[in-house]
Amino acid sequence: MHNQNPVFIPGPTNMPEALRRAVDMPTMDHRSAGFKDILHPALDGVKKVLKSETAEVFLFPSTGSGGWETALSNTLCKGDKVLACENGMFSQKWIDMCLRHGLEVEVVKVEWGMGIPAARFEEILAADKSHEIKAVLATHNETATGVVSDIAAVRAAINSAAHPALLFVDGVSSIGSMDFRMDEWGVDVAITGSQKGFMLPAGLAIAAFSPKASAMVESATLPRWYFDIRDMRAGYAVNGYPYTPPVGMINGLKMATDMLLSEGLENVFARHERIATGVRKAVAAWNMPLYAHSPELFSNSVSAIKTPDGYDANQIVTLASDKYDTAFGGGLGQVAGKLFRIGHLGSLTDMMALSGLAVAEMCMKDLGFPITLGAGVAVAQEHCRTSI
Questions:
Q1: pLDDT tens readout for residues 251-269
Q2: Domain residue ranges in the chain
C-alpha cells in the first residue's frame, strides 16, 4: 500500500510528520533528569484535553484495552457488581473482561446502532437500594457502529438515583476528536489510547482517575501488578516510571497534546464535526443509511455505513485495499459484511476526506452497487466549499 495515501480506518489514524519525528527520537536514559521534561508535560496536556482540573493521568505501555483493565483492577474487588450496556463490539469486549475478572455484570442489551439508555440505567440504579452496583461502564463512542452516547445523561441518571457508583467511560475513539468533559460530566475513570485522537501509533493506554476513583485503590483487591496505579504514581513522584517507559511514545503524546491545544480544542471538535457532516451528506446521496439509528447518535469520528441487502460490505474494504491502496474499516462481529466504516478522526482534513469518499464511490461502482459515480463526492464538495 502506498504510504502517501491517507487511511480511513477508525484507528490507528493518520500521523502528522511532526509526531512521527517526535516518536522517532534517539535513545534516552529514562532515569536521567531530562525524562521529567517529557513525562510531566504529557500528563498535563492530557488533563487539558480531558477538560479536567483534578484527574490523575496514568500512561501505560498498552492500548485502550489495557486502560479498561486499569480502571477495573484498581477500584474493584472480585464479586463486585457493575452495570454496563452492550451496544456494539467494544462494549461487548469490556463486559467480557469484567466477567473474566470475576465481576458480576448486569448487562443492558440494546440493538447495535442504539446508544446507552440512560433512563433504563436510572431505573436499575434507583432499584439498587443496597448499592451493590459499584461501577457503571459507558462506551462514549462505539467504534464498531459509529454510535455516540450521551455521557452527561448517564451521569445525570446516576445522580438522580442518588447512587454512589463510579462512572467509567471508554473514550478511546472520542477523546481528542470529540468534546469530552471529565469533570463536568462526573467521569471517575476516563480511558483512551494513543492511536486515535492523539494521532500516534498504538502503544499507550491512557487512564485518568478522579479523586473518588483514586481513593478506591487501597481497598480494591482484584489482582494487578503491571497496571497498578500506585506504582505508577510513585514513579511519577520521582520523575520516573516503575518499569521501562516508551519514551518516544510519551514524547509524541507531549507534542500531540501541544498540537491539539494549539489548534484549540473547540476548533478541533468543529473540524471533526464539519468533516463528519460532509461524510454523512455523501452517504445520504448514496441512498445508504448509517448504522446509527438516529441523528443524535451519529459519531463525529467514525461513520458505519450499511450496505444494501445482497451486497457484501467486506468487498468494498478488500477492493479499496487491493486496487486503490486505501484502507476503510470493515464490519465487526454481528455486523461483519453488513457495513463498512469510514474513520474521520485524528489527523484529517476536509480534502483528505473528499479523497476517501471518491475511492469509496469507485469501489462501489466497480462492484455493481446501485450508485451514481460522483453523487456523494459532489454534495460533500458543496458542503466543504460553503462551510470552511
A1: 999 999 999 999 999 999 9
A2: 17-262, 264-387
* Cell numbers representing residue 122 in the block: 436510572
H helix or E strand, kind and range, residue 242: none
Name which of 56, 35, 33 is nearest 44 in CA terms. 56
Residues written for the chain: 388
One of 2.40.30.100, 3.40.50.1010, 1.10.1020.10, 3.90.1150.10 is the CATH number of 264-387, namely 3.90.1150.10
Return the DSSP state at 114. B
Kindly write down the DSSP assignment for every residue of 77-103, as one continuous string: -TT-EEEEEE-SHHHHHHHHHHHHTT-
CATH number of 17-262: 3.40.640.10
Alpha helices in the chain (DSSP H): 17-23, 36-49, 64-73, 89-100, 118-127, 151-160, 211-214, 229-237, 247-263, 265-285, 313-324, 350-366, 375-387
Q: Percent helix, strand and coil across the chain, each rounded to 5?
A: 45, 15, 40
- pLDDT of 1: 47
Tell me whether the CATH fold assigned to 17-262 matches the one assigned to 264-387. no
Residue 331 DSSP label: P
Write the CA distances from 31 to 28, 35, 187, 350, integer angstroms: 9, 7, 33, 42
